[in-house]
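Re: the request from the purification team.
They wanted to know what the chain is likely to look like in 3D before they choose a buffer screen. I agreed to run a prediction and write the result into the notebook, where they can find it.
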Amino acid sequence: MKKHIYILVLTAFLWSCGGSGGDTPGPDPTPENKAPSVPSLVYPSANLLCIDNTINFSWNASTDPDGDTVSYEIQIAKDNQFTQIVQSVSNSSTTRTISLDKGVAYYWRVSAKDSKNKSSSFSSANSFYTEGEGVSNYLPFSPEVISPTLNDVITGTSATLEWNASDVDNDPLTYDVYFGTVNPPTATVSTNQTTKTYSVDLNGKTDYYWKIVVKDDKGGETLGQVWNFKTD
């Protein structure tokens, strides 16, 4: 009887020391670093005519979910796709003074980055003009795609091309539409139209390309970039 009691006590002791499986738990995983929120632009506002070419850019502060210190990257370009960047500046505050050329249409945007190099997406872009000496007419801003979006896949035998455009002088605008299967498109399917949409017929499993030329009533023209989509 004593031998049985001794075995039970020893078994209970070994069980309490060894645990259920004997595995030593590993260290807690490192928490995932999260990106800051996307900044929102304040000045210059969209489609603004700046009377000075030295501009005080400002935007709203981002917040970081982990409480990290946040800095910012400001990009300024001559096109709304930011392929012609003229300034790319890092900044610790939400304001920055930058001098630019006169009489030029610019586009700007901002992203936030935390102290662990995790970046937010860029903000939406604002367009603005710097006033030029002796300029009586400013060219329209580059057109912006609405639909179909870049690399979109379309189902069906027709689609409506839709875009947006603006002019700092508030001149009336007209549009030439280029559309086809060649990149860049060379066929003009509509000229001097006043609406910002155009309907096209489509074939299946085909890549299509289109662009818009924006014209004001003073002879100014702005050539838009090539947009593309495909059919399934």
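For the purification team: The chain has two domains: 40-130, 144-231.
Please add any questions underneath this entry.
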